[in-house]
Amino acid sequence: DQEEIRTGVDQCIQKFLDVARQTECFFLQKRLQLSVQKPDQVVKEDVSELRNELQRKELLVQKHLSKLHHWQQVLDQQKAVLPSSIASFRPGSRVLPSSIASFRPGSRVLHSLLLARKQSPPLLHSLLLTRKQSPPLLHGLL
């Protein structure tokens, strides 16, 4: 009984796929006839599709610009909070500014770096050395 049901289902699926192929062929033939009889209609459809795609891409660009603006504001806020010695610190330098070496738990600068780590990892990464080069107090941040 189970085999008969499975065979019946397979046959129904095959019939459905055949009818779907026939339907697709019908519409493709009609599309071909339309393109031969009215080529301007095909051009109008193509132009319409291109306009829709352009509009979709413009919305995507606007979305990315708004995100960029948001992260630039976050970066500007972080730069305003960070002391000048940290802001002027250059990655790759072997010398740490004294204000980085003297972080105390609960300090405003340490809090700012923690916020920068959560909101914009590239900012903190560009300001500090790698884990091997940083003082032990900063190991948890990197």
UniProtKB/TrEMBL annotation:
Which InterPro entries does the entry mention? Mediator_Med28 (IPR021640)
Q: Report the subcellular localization.
A: Nucleus
Any one GO CC term of this protein is: mediator complex
Spell out the coiled coil positions from the record: none
State the UniProt keywords alphabetically: Activator, Coiled coil, Nucleus, Transcription, Transcription regulation
Signal peptide feature range: none
Q: Which domain of life is it from?
A: Eukaryota
Q: Which family does it belong to?
A: Belongs to the Mediator complex subunit 28 family.
The record, for PANTHER family, names: MEDIATOR COMPLEX SUBUNIT 28, MEDIATOR OF RNA POLYMERASE II TRANSCRIPTION SUBUNIT 28
Descriptive protein name: Mediator of RNA polymerase II transcription subunit 28
- Organism ancestry: Eukaryota, Metazoa, Chordata, Craniata, Vertebrata
